[in-house]
Amino acid sequence: MAQTTKRDLVSDLAGNVLSGSGLTLDKILDAVTENAPALLGKKLKYPSLTSANWKNLMEKFRRNVPLKLTPKWVADNLNTSQKNAETVILPSLDLLGVTDANGKTTAKAKALGKQATYANQLSKILTAT
What is the mean pLDDT of residues 72-79? Predict the structure, then answer.
């Protein structure tokens, strides 16, 4: 579909209602998802962490959640390169809300580090993502 503006999207959805073809939640979600990059003016980004990196990170968090995750810390502790830490792991953790844009760990990171709150926090992250 061609790039759609917010006004076009609303008009198209309103047209579905007025034409009698109906407007379902599926139609709304499909229309918004399909046009989200154009509406936001950027590409959608999704976190991409391997299960091994996630597992190793959670093991480290259970021992101690650092105040800040640097590319060096991630590379050393997850047995990966600093380039991978900078381009994949840290941006993914930022998208998940585990760190902020500066690499500082958030309350989510601390909750993930505790066995008692891990499952609940992970559920929230999955739902939000």
Answer: 94
Angular region, 24: left φ>0, alpha ψ -120 to 50, beta rest: beta
- DSSP assignment string, 8-33: HHHHHHHHHHHHTS---HHHHHHHHH
Tokens of 28: 């709304």
Mean of the pLDDT values across residues 46-75? Answer: 91
Q: How far is CA 101 from CA 3, 38, 62, 109, 111, in A?
A: 29, 23, 22, 14, 19
Mean of per-residue pLDDT scores for the chain: 80
Backbone angles phi, psi at 19, to 5 degrees: -75, -10
| Average of per-residue pLDDT across 74-87 | 92
DSSP 8-state code for residue 103: S
